[in-house]
Amino acid sequence: MNESANSIPSTKRSIPMALMQVIGFGGSLAVLVWAVRVALRDENREQLAKLSHATPAELMMLMSLAAISVAFNGMLFWVVMNPVHKLRPTDVIATNAISTLLAYLPFKLSIVSRFVIHNRRDKIPMLTIGAWIVAVTFLMLAVFGPIAAVSLWQQEINTLWWIVSGIGILGSTIVGSLIARQLEGDIGTRRIAKLLGEKITSTQNYSRVHIGFEMLANSRAALLGNFFRILDILTFVMRFYVAARVLDLPISGSDSLLLGATYFLIGMASPVGMLGTREAGTIAIASMVGISSAALTEDTAGQTPIIIAVLFVTAIESVVNLACAGFGLAWLKARPGLEQNPDSDSPHPATSIIPVENSLPDGDRHPP
32-37 long-range contacts, Cβ below 8 Å, gap at least 24? Predict the structure, then answer.
């Protein structure tokens, strides 16, 4: 009876949240439909005709960049988990392909799919998967934090911007890893117990969450993970650069970086799925800040050619992501997961490229 009574408030809270997700997704689709209608107007026929003249090499480049992005992001997840759990990199990439396709939809189905697949197939505890996702998020902040700070300082992308951004990303990743090292293992547990109490830190659930600090504490894994993150972002940048070349829009590398980073960030942050929200946000940013004037020259309806470039990138990506998800699903069905203890924290030697040793002695690395 108590369980039923307790579930009623939870249900009441979930219904409005679900409605907000549906309404938000509907709004995103409406924006996408608007963008498509603008792109198909008569005044944009010249731009659309250029798409039909795209060379096979240009189309292959765009498709390859979209597929490589799925692989890079999958490798990032594998590298972060590798110090504490054995997984095949190909399995993590396949899972990421499925999650990437589901990211178009609301209800955070992409995140849900990671929990379901890695828990049921790879026997990783739910709380550890949550810690894994949080660790990846912190690493992403270590990349975009310095980039945002340097961008506000410089107001343009130049040689100094690249140098300071690179140093900032390297420094923030190392500092974050060193902080995590102070909170991992028995020593970290004793420090956390002073704040949360030993009653909490002595539980198995705590151990499954606390292992996230060990993921971040491995500086080599953290640095390699952010290396893959940067490569992933660059694939977005290159997609906009190639799309602009196809459409004869004089978008510079700096403009492509702004468009690619915006497209990526909105897709990651959108609570209602990335379909429509990325396109609307990227078009809005392009209209507000320093994109090449020719790419923003308004037509008679007050719209800009950049809309077609954004939709072109989305169309190519959608086809590739659908294909990658299909291959990923087939791959996971064909290959069983690695047998492992759900509470095991030791990587398999055959799959580990990230050494797990650091400055702490073995006895201080894992809570009892």
Answer: 32/275, 32/276, 32/279, 32/280, 35/279, 35/280, 35/283, 35/307, 35/310, 35/311, 36/311
Residue-wise pLDDT for 116-174, tens only, equals 999 999 999 999 999 999 999 999 999 999 999 998 898 788 899 999 999 999 999 99
Query: Which pair of tokens denotes residue 50?
Result: 């250029």
What does 217-233 look like in DSSP terms, one character per residue? Answer: H-HHHHHHHHHHHHHHH
pLDDT tens sequence across 62-97: 999 999 999 999 999 999 999 999 899 999 999 999
- Among residues 178, 80, 183, which one has the least CA distance to residue 129? 80
Angle between helices 219-246 and 253-269 (to 10 degrees): 120
Neighbours of 223 (CB within 10 A): 18
**Helix and strand tally (H, E) in the chain?**
14, 0
How far apart CA 259 and CA 107 sit, in angstroms, is 26
- pTM, two decimal places: 0.82
Question: Six-digit token pair at 55?
Answer: 């060379």
What pLDDT was estimated at residue 335? 86
CA dihedral sign of residues 240, 243, 247, 250:
positive
Handedness of CA 37, 41, 43, 44 (dihedral sign): positive
CA–CA gap between residue 229 and residue 367 (Å, rounded): 30
